[in-house]
Q: What sequence folds into this?
């Protein structure tokens, strides 16, 4: 098996980290796209937070905890090549998107363009505004795998406020050319916001090179930080032009004057922050980022690309037909396998110690740097052993 065997040297290069993720002691974990495996470094950082809380209480805000927020903004920024002042923290992608969505002026540009393959929380932000004159245009996928940028371009006009779409489609794992998407939006005077929740951590991304105006990602998946912490990148010149219509005290420059009569937004992306961040989630993310920074995303990408090709090859040899992009370079570490009853298949896998997930019509596998080829063997054999209905 050519693809599978060629993956061995690169895949094994990061297998030494596997022992730091306890779930592998008794499970095959192929579900990072739903939730990154818990690493020992994240566990230790959360324990550190709890120890500080126990010993210092609220006085830790004066130095340690405030510094942790600054540190996380800076480290998120380095992941995507953004300045710390271009990063805002939020508890979820929905909140981060809301902050941007409520900052736009739709009076002359009422249209927002997205694709049918994007995660629905993107659509919900603007469908909720339909009664206020906002028009959401959803571009269909001709092959159900990706959406041509040309199709997006045809939908963008002088009435378009925003193009919002994914770097990696959660439905197929296909990688989108977001540099072209940003250029398409800018050609008609629109902004471009990218949902990179499925990509940041597994695929290198440089917000300066791509030219996107805003981008959201976070800890849940490939950044190994768990739920409750995400970031919003907003390009500095764009952030200064947008004034949020939903806000909170962390978005205020004069946060500690406690003046209920004045809004004093930060001059940078922090103006989009709202309430007090979850420090447990912040600390878990600081631990998870240690793995990402130590290995480096280019090497993670090399390893996961090899693992992905190995998994696809094994599934095909077993008679399955993974739904993935045709070109290997456009595949992320998300492999969709059409199945008649995906939920039943996921339960069958779990009963055999293999953790995967389901999406409509498909079982979803998502290998990461801590996986090895034996995981793919067990997963494929277990999936093939499911009794026919």
A:
């Amino acid at each position: 098996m050519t693809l599978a065997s060629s993956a061995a040297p690169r895949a094994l290069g990061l297998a030494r980290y596997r022992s730091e993720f306890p779930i592998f002691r008794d499970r095959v974990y192929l579900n990072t796209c739903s939730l990154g495996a818990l690493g020992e470094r994240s566990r230790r950082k959360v324990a550190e937070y709890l120890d500080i809380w126990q010993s210092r209480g609220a006085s830790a805000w004066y130095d340690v905890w405030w510094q942790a927020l600054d540190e996380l903004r800076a480290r998120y920024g380095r992941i995507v090549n953004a300045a710390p002042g271009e990063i805002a923290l939020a508890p979820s992608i929905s909140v981060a998107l809301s902050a941007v969505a409520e900052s736009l002026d739709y009076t002359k540009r009422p249209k927002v363009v997205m694709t049918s393959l994007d995660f629905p929380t993107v659509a919900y932000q603007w469908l909720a505004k339909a009664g206020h004159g906002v028009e959401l245009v959803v571009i269909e996928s001709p092959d159900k795998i990706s959406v041509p940028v040309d199709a997006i371009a045809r939908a963008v006009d002088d009435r378009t406020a925003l193009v919002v779409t994914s770097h990696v489609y959660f439905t197929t794992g296909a990688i989108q050319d977001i540099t072209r998407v940003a250029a398409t939006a800018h050609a008609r005077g629109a902004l471009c916001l990218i949902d990179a929740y499925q990509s940041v951590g597994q695929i290198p991304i440089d917000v300066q090179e791509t030219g996107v105006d805003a981008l959201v990602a976070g800890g849940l998946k490939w950044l190994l930080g768990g739920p409750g912490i995400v970031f919003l990148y907003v390009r500095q010149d764009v952030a200064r032009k947008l004034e949020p219509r939903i806000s909170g005290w962390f978005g205020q420059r004069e946060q500690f004057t406690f003046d209920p009569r004045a809004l004093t937004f930060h001059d940078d992306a922090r103006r989009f922050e709202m309430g007090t961040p979850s420090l447990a989630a912040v600390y878990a993310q600081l631990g998870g980022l240690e793995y990402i920074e130590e290995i480096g995303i280019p090497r993670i990408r090399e390893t996961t690309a090899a693992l992905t090709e190995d998994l696809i090859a094994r599934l095909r040899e077993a008679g399955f037909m993974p739904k993935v992009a045709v070109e290997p370079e456009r595949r992320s570490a998300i492999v969709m396998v059409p199945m008649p009853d995906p939920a039943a298949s996921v339960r069958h896998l779990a009963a055999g110690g293999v953790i995967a997930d389901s999406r409509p019509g498909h079982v979803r596998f998502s290998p990461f740097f801590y996986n090895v080829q034996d995981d793919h063997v067990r997963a494929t054999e277990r999936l093939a052993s499911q009794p026919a209905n």
